[in-house]
Amino acid sequence: MAFPKHARPTTPPLAHSAERRHLSELAAALTPYGVWARVIEDGVPFLRVSNPTSSCATEDVTCERREHDYAFFTTFRVQLGTSETIALTAYRTAWLIGAADG
Q1: pTM tops 0.85
Q2: I need a labelling partner for 55 at 20 to 30 A (CA). Which of 8, 9, 35, 41 fits?
Q3: What b/e sequence results for 33-51 when a residue is b if at least 16 CB atoms lie within 10 Å of its CB, and e otherwise?
Q4: Do residues 30 and 15 lie in contact, with contact meaning Cβ atoms separated by under 8 Å?
Q5: Cβ atoms of residues 39 and 46 within 8 Å
Q6: Nearest residue to 74 (alpha-carbon basis) of 86, 85, 64, 88
Q7: What are the pLDDT digits (tens) for 59-99?
């Protein structure tokens, strides 16, 4: 079925943003830690990361454009890492919610 030009479905502008892509990469890097990680697209996208062994260990990670890369931040504005350091950022995120040894 063809849609009239004015009625064509549109993709939300953030659905394919660089921020969303980097958050998805971080989610994939968190897989070995056994945490739950899901990109939430409620306005500005963020990554909700939870430790399944804890009832309260959850963190929402945002991604922001910087001059030469993207930076990941906790809800209390601590920088976890950058798009250039995904593995380290994943470790820090997992550690923050108690899913990685210090």
Answers
A1: no
A2: 41
A3: bebebebeeeeebbbebbb
A4: no
A5: yes
A6: 64
A7: 999 999 999 999 999 999 999 999 999 999 999 999 999 99
